[in-house]
Design brief:
218 residues, 19% strand, eight-stranded parallel β-sheet, 8 strands, TIM Barrel
């Protein structure tokens, strides 16, 4: 997979949620990205398992579920049952990360690891072979609409180098402040998937914006 866009549902109009999901269904997006926030690991609360279950009934795109919560291992099966196809947990909140990734795989989901902006890429060295996805946060997680951290481009390069050196087949996803000014740079640095919320759902033509983001910098 390369040059794919995963619209973030957090930026959608929740008063017209079915319409927003159908918009993604009819686009070139690879996934529908769902941010789960608990108000503890990040300073905000988003939505939980019942919303994931409802979205699954409508979405024709795989659900890319990003757990920004403490003790995510307690909820792996619940998110599987709700319809998650890809499940990403944070390095910073998973003290037994190897075990958690194994449990995600045992539940027949793809397993992702997310790194906050301050977390070094080198922290992935011992577990990269167990991850299907590395999610690089290009903002401090917890809120939509934040400004992109420029150093994230180099962080993507380092992650791509680590993946190549290890022989891993993990994809690189980037989330936070993604727009047309940085999408091309991130793809060139080695990103496979860009998560975009406000840029997509705030656009006059979201379907076309997804297409433009995927082709940025070509």
């Amino acid at each position: 997979m390369s040059r794919s866009i995963a619209p973030s549902l957090l930026a959608a109009d929740f008063s017209c949620l079915q319409r927003e999901i159908e918009l993604v269904n009819n686009s070139e997006a690879c996934f529908l990205h769902l941010d789960i926030m608990d108000g503890l690991f990040v300073p905000n609360i988003s939505f939980g398992i019942p919303v994931v279950s409802a979205v699954k009934k409508i979405s024709r795109k795989p659900l890319d579920v990003h757990l920004m919560i403490v003790q995510p291992e307690r909820y792996l099966r619940k998110f599987k049952d709700a319809g998650a196809d890809w499940l990403t947990v944070h390095m910073e909140t998973s003290p037994h990360l190897h075990r958690t990734l194994q449990e995600i795989h045992a539940l027949d989901m793809k397993a992702g690891v997310s790194l906050n902006p301050h977390t070094q890429v080198s922290s992935l060295e011992e577990i990269i072979s167990y991850a299907d996805l590395v999610l690089i946060m290009s903002v401090n997680p917890g809120f939509g609409g934040q400004q992109f951290i420029p150093g994230s481009v180099e962080k993507v390069r380092k992650t791509r180098d680590l993946i190549r050196a290890s022989g891993s087949k993990a994809l690189i996803e980037v989330d936070g402040g993604i727009d047309l000014s940085n999408a091309g740079l991130l793809f060139k640095a080695g990103a496979d998937i860009l998560v975009a919320g406000t840029t997509v759902f705030g656009a006059k033509d979201p379907v076309n914006m997804i297409r433009e983001l995927a082709s940025a910098g070509r």
